[in-house]
Design goal:
The chain is of the alpha/beta class. It has two domains: about 5-195, Rossmann fold, CATH 3.40.50.2000; about 205-390, Rossmann fold (3-Layer(aba) Sandwich), CATH 3.40.50.2000. The chain is built from 16 helices and 14 strands. The strands form two sheets. It has an eight-stranded mixed beta sheet, sandwiched between helices. Strands 11-10-9-12-13-14 form a six-stranded parallel beta sheet, with helices on both faces. It is globular, with a radius of gyration of 21 Å. The chain starts with a strand and ends with a helix.
Amino acid sequence: MKNILIITDSYPPEIRSSSQLMRNLADGLRDKGHNVWVATSYPKYNLTDSENAVWPEMADENGIKVLRIKTLPHHKVNFITRGVAQLLMPYIFFRKIKKNIKGRIDVVIVHSPPLPLSIAAYKVKKFYCAKYMLNLHDIFPQNAVDLGILRNKFLIKFFERMERNAYKKADIIVVPSEAHRNFLAEKRNISREKIDVIPHWIDPKPFLSAERIGKFRKLYGLGNKFIFLFGGVLGPSQGLDLFIRIADKIRNNKDIIFLFVGGGSAKENLVKMAEKLELENVVFKPFVSLEEYPELVKDCDVGIICLTAQNTTPAVPAKILGYMAAAVPVVAFLHKESDGLLIVKEAKCGYGAISNNEEKALEIILKMYNEKEKMKEYGENGLRYLLKNMEKKVCVDKFEKLL
């Protein structure tokens, strides 16, 4: 049995892929008999109205001790404010961790992004003599440079130095795909022996137990439409304007609906685009709760994962897991460096293409609509692949071997 601290800026009730990943990891390690703490930001973002409540600083949640830390605003703010908040975050986190965790910490696991939290993990490593594991989801600052978010040469150099220190000071780096490992080895000169590949994971039970009863179809007034769903954070890296353009081209097909459920910095512009084009086949809805999400996915016909071709880092959108767990087929429009297209191909759970090939994307959308009878088979293929390779227990077992 080990004392494990997970550091993450997002944890339930906040709704985003990283919060679910970290809760599943915490649950899995607890179930294996370990003492688990989670240090996370105080819930402020991506909440349903019922979850926008007051939360205690320290609480025992199903055997996991959760420390919720108030920080400066770091989501839904401009990039300067967000940057300052994230730079201060590791110091605020470490001060609270020292104050609230008096016993031994054997292993600290930090989820990145945000990259600055790696500083908090290193401070925990030194103070508690703990092993430091960096769970690397996105590669920053390169992803921000790709999207044009980060352009100042001084800041780029500053964050590149922080990135190098994070990799150097970590005892183990965990990445979700072979493409990530190759990127770090070839472009960041990190020893492959230091890098372990553990794919994104999910607990499929809530999706397996959910029934397709048409609750959200009725709630949203979508009847028997053929629904392409994107559920989650609508940000600049997704390039979701692709679907607005496709929706415009097939507006005469009254049977196809593109449903966006969630929020984020890109939502306002997407809504404006759809309204300007007077699109009736694009629907926007706010976040649903984590408990309701499996029912939402099961009510839809195809799940969307999308990343703009501007990306050059090997990101794999974790939202693919929910679609696969619900046995819903996937359409993936990603950049060529992402292993997401490989997952869809290996799992035989849908179709994919490079996201800057709009004509191919349109062709795939219509192909999936016209192959309705095959969608069940693709969905079941995805579920089988997930249970074998990306189920929570499978991946937690791999994590435990690294502790």
